[in-house]
Amino acid sequence: MIEATKDFLAQQEELYAKRKEEILNAKDELVIKGTTYYVSNSGDDNADGKTPETAWQTIDRVNKQWLYPGDGVLFERGGLWRGKEVLTMAGVSYGAYGEGDKPKFYGWIEDMADPSFWELVDEAHNIWKYTKEITDPGTLVFNDGEAHSRKLIPTFRNMQFVCRDDINKPFVMENEMTQDLDIYWFFDSILEYGTSKGEKFPIPAANSSCYGDLFLRCDKGNPGEVFDSIESIARHVAFRVGENANVTVDNMCMKYLCFGVTAGGYSVGLHVTNCEIGWIGGNIQTYNGGDPNYPEGKRGSVTRFGNGIEIYGGCDDYIVEGNYIYESYDAGASHQVTTRRELIMQNIRYTDNLIEKCVYGIEYFLDQKPGSEGSTMKNLVMNGNIIRLSGYGWGQQRHNTHTPALIKGWSYTNTASDYHIYDNVFDRSGYRMLHLVAEKDEYCPEMHDNTYIQDIGGMIGQWGGNEVEEPEVEIFDENAEEKIKNVFKEKNPKVYIIK
Length: 499
Hints:
Blueprint: E1 2-3, H1 6-24, E2 36-39, H2 59-64, E3 72-76, E4 80-82, E5 86-87, E6 93-97, E7 104-106, E8 118-122, E9 127-130, E10 134-135, E11 140-142, E12 147-148, E13 150-152, E14 155-157, E15 160-163, E16 166-170, H3 173-176, E17 182-186, E18 191-196, E19 199-204, E20 211-217, H4 223-226, E21 230-232, E22 234-242, E23 247-250, E24 253-273, E25 276-280, E26 283-286, E27 303-305, E28 309-321, E29 324-328, E30 331-339, E31 344-351, E32 354-356, E33 360-368, E34 376-383, E35 386-390, E36 405-408, E37 416-422, E38 425-429, E39 432-438, E40 446-448, E41 451-455, E42 459-465, E43 474-475, H5 480-486, E44 490-491, E45 494-498
Parallel strand pairs: 1-45, 2-3, 3-6, 4-7, 5-22, 6-23, 7-24, 13-17, 22-24, 23-24, 24-25, 24-28, 25-29, 28-30, 28-31, 29-32, 30-33, 31-34, 32-35, 33-36, 34-37, 35-38, 36-39, 37-40, 38-41, 39-42, 40-44, 41-45
Antiparallel strand pairs: 8-9, 9-20, 10-20, 11-12, 11-21, 14-15, 15-16, 17-20, 18-19, 26-27, 42-43
């Protein structure tokens, strides 16, 4: 084991910056065998879309077109599309053309840094109201990441909002917004009946069709004058794949969204390559219980969610390669499912990504219920990735602050074979570096040639079967290299300790 000196850490930062620049400047190399359609902010939806000169303009026009396997849709570099989801079709590639920055897909309909968008509603507490109704924001991001909000979410019990840390105390906005840039989104117009612990009780709906009032505490004055840009992490998706097979998304910039790319079904094939995906999630999934956050499993609790790239369900040929993913409330990239039927998750590759400040860098789980016998993960590889600083990003405003990990497998059945983790750089986690637990040791990954960088006294994490008992959480101390070799069964690790 080697001490990580300041010079070594500086060299690592240069390595990370180089990887980031390589991803941001990746070339457009998609091969499209069918018809190519072009989309530009200066285009015309009445054109045929088949050349850059006759490009379409809107995502709505893209979604109306029937596309065939082998076709491609290219968005012009330097362009920006807001508030709309691309509804992908099977076998179709979505990429970029032209010069400049990657095409941008942002969640909310507008940059909110305009003084006319804000009115002062409580001068004594510096509380401002956005003048338009808005979908639930995960948070607000100021000046492209210089600052972000703390989102206040009360619990809803007995037909009223109450404080989450004291359910007997009514939630009063001006009393709870105690910090500069605190936000509160109010919506209770539609109540639905969710189930928790076998009970049914009314809770506010919080889906992408729900528009409520947004309040922001800004101590320096009108937010539209204080900041050059204000972006809301909207409850929207950039590319919705659904059950479509063999979709490719390449060289896109997806920011301020609940999900960048999301898919789910029985056997989804998906390639996401060379993309920038940042400031993701934190939106309200549901107010009802069964929540891993706080209060655990009680009526009226709140679940927040949002991943950069996700497949929920079975998959085959799932590749996440060469992406820069950062500041995700939950996972940077993920395949996951809780299932009562047989599902296969196979031929999965996470390769050469740079993932920073996501609560979970890569997340996976196979939670098997009765009826799912035969479900498994096969041919799963994570290699060449730089995954760093889980537990240090904005997602740590969550209540379950003890869960972050660079790779997060939770402690489910996680039946797997031909599972390999190698040649990655794991650089610091506020909690576990690795959470690699399954029902049996044989379902856990084979590991070799990974680099570990962690603060002394931090966690390495867990590896092993939980059929008898949960594996012990290993600590990163002077014996960290031996633990990684003996407990994680890692061959040839490079281990650096920060003292």
